[in-house]
Amino acid sequence: MKLKAGMVVLSACVTGVGKEVEGEGVVNFARAFQQAGAKAVIVSLWEVASEPAVEYMKTLYSHLKSGKSRAEAMKLTRTEN
């Protein structure tokens, strides 16, 4: 599968958790999307309640829509939520 995605967001619970494979590192959804061509992948390493996760993503997308870079949007979102 080939993707031309600048960013993929997997905002469900523990989407960044995977299995460590000797000689490969951690194998998870994020790695699969990166190998398929996504330039950036945002994942969760913990279980989150639905409402806070929704608010976090709204804030993140709001910053992205206003023209902030992915890194700046993530930083601002972390400090605001």
Element string (H = helix, E = strand): EEEHEHH
Q: Order of strands across the widest beta sheet?
A: 1-4
Count of β-strands: 4
Number of helices: 3
CA(first)-CA(last) distance: 35 Å
Write down the Rg.
Answer: 14 Å
Global outline: globular
> How is the biggest beta sheet arranged?
2 strands, parallel
Provide the residue-averaged pLDDT: 89
Q: Structural class of the secondary elements?
A: alpha+beta
Proportion of beta-strand residues: 5-15%
The poorly predicted ranges are none
| DSSP helix fraction | 40-55%
Overall description:
This protein has 81 residues and is α+β, with helices and mostly antiparallel strands. It has three helices and four strands; from the N terminus they run βββαβαα. The strands form two sheets. It has a two-stranded parallel sheet. It has a two-stranded antiparallel ribbon with strand order 2-3. Helix 2 packs across helix 3. The mean pLDDT is 89.
